[in-house]
Design goal:
Helix content is 62%, strand content 4%. With 200 residues, the chain is mainly α.
Length: 200
């Protein structure tokens, strides 16, 4: 059986993807330590690593947004409802019955409709929750100078940030699981390493 081979992910996309993954994993590990879930690095080092990774990720995102708009890759994330029902049926039932995937990737359309909606939710809901609460948390010592100390509670900000972390963890687990749903369990991971997608 022959395989179609297409070049899907450019070098920068792969760099951005794996760098972001490493930073998010590190922030999850250090963040839950700061929250008091376990002890791994020690509180002080966990705070330092967490903050360093957060600023690094913001810089990475700045470069990535610039890259996406200068290459028109931002169009990959425009949400659509076309074939959403087919993708829902595929992930809910079809994938367990060896049904064909109703979506076929191309260089112009890398993300299926459900992925596009998931990324929209990530950018419009989850990111503001995490980054908003994280910045309030980070600049707690400046609340009085900014005149907002009477309107916010550090405990509430911490709880919102932790809730965002759990949502990110759920997204991460789902994302990792879906990488195993290619024609082989490692096909999607291999594509994100090499850039080349092979479909039977």
């Amino acid at each position: 059986m022959s395989a179609n081979r297409i070049y899907l992910y450019k070098r920068y996309e792969r760099f951005w993807h794996w760098s972001q993954a490493l930073l998010i994993i590190t922030m999850l590990v250090t963040g839950f330590e700061v929250h008091g879930t376990y002890t791994l690095f020690g509180f002080g080092k966990a705070v330092y690593y967490h903050t360093f990774c957060a600023w690094t990720l913001l810089v990475l995102w700045a470069f990535t947004i610039f890259w996406q708009f200068t290459t028109d890759e931002w169009k990959q994330y425009i949400p659509t409802l076309k074939k959403v029902d087919a993708m829902v049926r595929y992930y809910a039932f079809g994938i367990f019955r060896n049904a064909p995937n109703p979506f076929h990737k191309t260089a112009e359309k890398k993300h299926n409709p459900l992925q596009r909606l998931a990324y929209l939710a990530l950018l419009s809901i989850l990111s503001p929750v995490i980054w908003g609460s994280g910045l309030f948390y980070l600049f707690y010592s400046s609340w009085a100078a900014l005149g907002i100390d009477g309107y916010l509670s550090l405990e509430a900000v911490a709880l919102v940030h932790t809730a965002g972390a759990f949502m990110m963890l759920v997204f991460f687990i789902a994302h990792v699981y879906l990488t195993t749903t290619g024609h082989t369990p490692t096909a999607h991971i291999k594509t994100m390493i090499t850039g080349w997608e092979e479909e039977e």
